[in-house]
Predict the structure.
Amino acid sequence: MQANRRKFIKQSLTTAAGLAASAIPGHAEAAYALSNRPVYSEQRSKPASRPTASIKFSVVGLNHGHIYGQTEAVIRGGGELVSFYAKEPDLAAAFTKRYPNAKLAKSEKEILEDKSIQLVVSASIPIDRAPLGIEVMKHGKDFMVDKPGIITLKQLEEVRKVQKETKRIYSIMYSERLENRATVKAGELIKEGAIGKVIQTIGLGPHRMNIKSRPEWFFKNNLYGGILCDIGSHQFDQFLFFTGSTQASIVASQVGNVHYPQYPEFEDFGDVMLRGNEGAGYVRVDWFTPDGLNTWGDGRLTILGTDGFIELRKNCDIGGREGGNHLFLVNQKETRYVDCKEVQLTFGEQLVSDVVNRTETAMSQTHCFLATELALQSQKQAQKLTIKK
């Protein structure tokens, strides 16, 4: 009884802290970044082994809290954070507090022209990400950006053109796969043949709104790309990775604003059915995580194979297990639970190695762009969903 009481108090305090952060007036973008930082708090642990390569990197654009997870991944992988630039003083101050040894540059140009910098990492406002990446590649540097890394088909065409010309890396951090230990473990199990040939993925990406902490651009479709382009991009990445598809198309998609009429350009719900040359997929994303949940979203992924299935409960298990990174495996031999909290995250080290060795071990450029293209096509083709209250 006492243990259950302690657990309840701990969860209640976590939820209350999240709600308090979202209610802080003013400095909306700083509150937004800070309120999202706990998603990556567990990733600050040291890597199991010493990275085999090292680089110098900089950060430009701090408009989403994912920047902290991106930065930690590169540092874990052997990167030295040299400098950063943000035009917003509050965001710069928060980043300096976390990384006091990084120099605050005077401009983007200062970083772009610094020949010692090999990689630029960014989580700027989504509309600005592709143009920045293009400039980074033209200056002979590699680029790693938060999702959505590209928000229009026109931007995608230009990014592909410049990437092909410069041979630089344009990497998009699909963190729900690359920075989630259970998802990494699922990839290992499937590679070993644990569920046979993968037939379908079902990806669910619910998120908490935290409406008071959101900056203005968050509600503008032309600035963030729409719900399928944005949080849906994770799901397209996972679909391609787990099915092994190298070609895919959108069968049907829909989006809607069913609960926030005060933000007419915003989309709070979307789903997609898609087909690839190696499997099928379904995606559902939304902004309806209730405040009673002790995390930002009960993200799940079900992977169906010919000989079994895997279910991932990424951030929490409402069945009662503490923490995140839960994996359930059912196949012809057993039904098993796998605690994945000790699984090593390898994306950062692989990316650093790719920068040094000009390889594609972290993610192929073709995969990166195809996942984005599917997100953009689903957004473009989406029918409008209207639900009367």
Notes: The two ends are 42 Å apart (CA to CA). Residues 1-46 have pLDDT under 50 and may be disordered.
